[in-house]
Inverse folding.
């Protein structure tokens, strides 16, 4: 069973502040996002933490994962971006 949980429940189930710091470090090391000066008149895109906890059949925590995700749905086409890109692998058989 996998549950998506809120911050309070994630902390109660053992997700640590350090693991969230590790996630931010990984984002910076992988250059997932680049920090830059905010252009005049623009707003920052917010982020949310997403916590997933996988439980064994006996109800004990088996695995947990926390991700920091951008709230990209707040962007407007033509204002905040002009094109989208989704890399897809293609297998020719």
């Amino acid at each position: 069973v996998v549950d998506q949980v809120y911050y309070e429940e994630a902390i109660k189930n053992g997700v640590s502040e350090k693991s969230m710091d590790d996630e931010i470090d990984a984002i910076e090391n992988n250059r997932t996002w680049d920090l830059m000066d905010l252009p005049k008149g623009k707003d920052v895109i917010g982020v949310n933490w997403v916590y997933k906890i996988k439980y064994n059949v006996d109800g004990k925590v088996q695995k947990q994962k926390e991700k920091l995700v951008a709230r990209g749905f707040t962007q407007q086409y033509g204002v905040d971006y002009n094109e989208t890109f989704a890399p897809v692998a293609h297998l020719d058989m």
Summary: Helices lie at 7-12, 17-29. The chain is about 20% helix and 25% strand. The radius of gyration is 18 Å. The chain has one domain: 2-74.
